[in-house]
Description:
By secondary structure, the chain is of the alpha/beta class.
Amino acid sequence: MQRDFLLPNGFGEIEGSSLDAVQASISSVKKLLGTCRQARLAIFHTREGHKPDLSDCPSNKLIRQNASPENKQHLKVIGDIGEMGRLLIRGEKGHDFVDELQPLPGEVVIDKPGRGAFWNTPLMDKLKAKAITHLLICGVTTECCFATTIREANDRGFECCGVEEATAGYNDSFKSSTLDMIHWSEGLFGFVTSLQPILERLAPLASKVVASDCDFQTMSTSTTLSISRLQALYRRGVPLCTLLEEVFSRIEKYNRIDPTIWIHLEPRETVMERARELHAKWPDKTKTPSLFGVPFSVKDSIDVAGIPTTTACPPLTRVPSKSSAVVERVLQQGALFIGKTNLDQLATGLTGCRSPYGIPRSVYDNDYISGGSSSGSCVSVGAGLVAFSIATDSM
Length: 395
């Protein structure tokens, strides 16, 4: 749903196309997108465009566009300068999505050089990484990118469903024919549905989220700090600092039960300051990144910039100048680092008993151990002190 295909003086209109139908589809796509977000479905945005040097633009794509004999408006081709920058060039204003359908932080954006979203892109790998098997597909244009992507997805084993009101093209007869071809012969390429049935089927998922995750008053010291619960609380307006007070209260209480979990614990005020920075960076709580305000711990064999990495072996302690890639990624998504956790020395044990910082106990029974080597990480999550931990498994 790019500006170049939907707005006046963009690539689509320059090609001689009417924008009436594609612009009318924006509101339906917006409804579908909002409902999918509320139901916590994974969101993937795709946009067609090319590198500034056009090295990924096939010559036939330029030649056929330039040679269109019936188009009297067709005075520009891909890469030429239009009113929204160079046409279909990555990084230009026209290449980006319309304002109503901008991605939220954490949603996947796929830049594709072709009509289909799979060719020469990382889309397949990203879908497989999330174990996704079924796709709801919408967008413009029906006869081009929409249909090509469904056919590509079908060839790769995905079950696809197009949403009729949430797709449109530059020719009404092409749209109906394209949709008929997709679902012909018991869904040869996929299926087609109307918007309302999809919204109705997704609505219970969204309401279930509200009912189960949003009551801060019922959170006890034994309540797991799940990511979904925290996200729901933030959306309801519960202040981030209020949740962090609860986190540090839990940590203090649990330290009296088992003081062996943490090798390094961030000062409360340091975490609070980071929380204030997150609020300033993302004031609109409907557009926060996927891990906004989610507290996490890190096994002390993984680097966090400026924090000693001991691997539970003090003589080998060092202070890294930069964080590991996975830590950087979760911080970029708004997660809050709480501290570094205990482990089997050099992460080489299986029990969690080989550490000069003590032996973490099971959250279920203090007479038992937690296991290792990520012993402290296990307890920090199991005891509800953080929502997740970055650790390792050498088995």
